[in-house]
């Protein structure tokens, strides 16, 4: 699951960079990129700990692994609560992105009807698709990171 979280992080950041370029620094894209970075910190910490041979179970570690376990023990609550907040913000970003992508257009009668930006052509459509893809990937990345961090609870 750690590899999936890392792949999703890289993919979300790449799509976010494309969305930022296409949408000219939209605040929702910038918020998503910040969420990608915050979720990446917890995943990278756990990945480095695991690559150095440490285990989330304190009794299974060698002398070098105990230092990593101690770091993980102290940072785990921060990461868990931080990822919970990131998940909630990612949901808001996804909802706000959908709201931004649905525009109202008035007909000759004056009745508003929703019109998707995805129906348009050219750079507006590229930006809309990139923003929506980034919001979905951000939510998936935060979920994968939260699952991986949550399943590696530090145990003595």
Defining key terms:
156 residues; two-stranded antiparallel sheet; elongated; 4 helices; 2 strands; mainly alpha
Helix content: over 70%
Tell me the fraction of residues in β-strands, as a range: 5-15%
**Average pLDDT value?**
78
**Biggest β-sheet strands, sense, barrel:** 2 strands, antiparallel
Please tell me what the overall shape is: elongated
What is the CA-based Rg, rounded? 20 Å
Uncertain residue segments: 104-108
Q: Helix segment count?
A: 4
Structure commentary:
With 156 residues, this protein is mainly alpha-helical. It contains four helices and two strands; from the N terminus they run αααββα. The protein has helices spanning 2-23, 27-51, 63-101, 123-151, and strands at 102-106, 112-116. The protein has a two-stranded antiparallel sheet with strand order 1-2. Strand 1 (102-106) and strand 2 form a beta hairpin. Helix 3 runs antiparallel to helix 4. The longest helix has 39 residues, at 63-101. The model is unreliable at 104-108 (pLDDT under 50).
What's the topology here?
Blueprint: H1 2-23, H2 27-51, H3 63-101, E1 102-106, E2 112-116, H4 123-151
Antiparallel strand pairs: 1-2
Helix pairs in contact: 1-2, 1-4, 2-3, 2-4, 3-4
């Amino acid at each position: 699951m750690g590899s999936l979280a890392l792949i999703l992080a890289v993919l979300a950041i790449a799509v976010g960079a494309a969305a930022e370029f296409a949408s000219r620094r939209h605040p929702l894209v910038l918020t998503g990129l910040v969420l990608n970075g915050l979720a990446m910190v917890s995943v990278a910490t756990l990945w480095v700990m695991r690559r150095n041979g440490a285990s989330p179970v304190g009794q299974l570690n060698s002398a070098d692994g105990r230092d990593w376990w101690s770091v993980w023990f102290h940072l785990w609550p921060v990461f868990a609560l931080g990822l919970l907040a990131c998940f909630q913000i990612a949901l808001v970003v996804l909802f706000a992105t959908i709201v931004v992508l649905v525009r109202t257009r008035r007909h000759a009668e004056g009745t508003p009807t929703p019109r998707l930006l995805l129906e348009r052509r050219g750079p507006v459509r590229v930006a809309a698709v990139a923003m929506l893809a980034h919001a979905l990937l951000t939510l998936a990345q935060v979920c994968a990171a939260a699952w991986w961090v949550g399943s590696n609870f530090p145990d003595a």
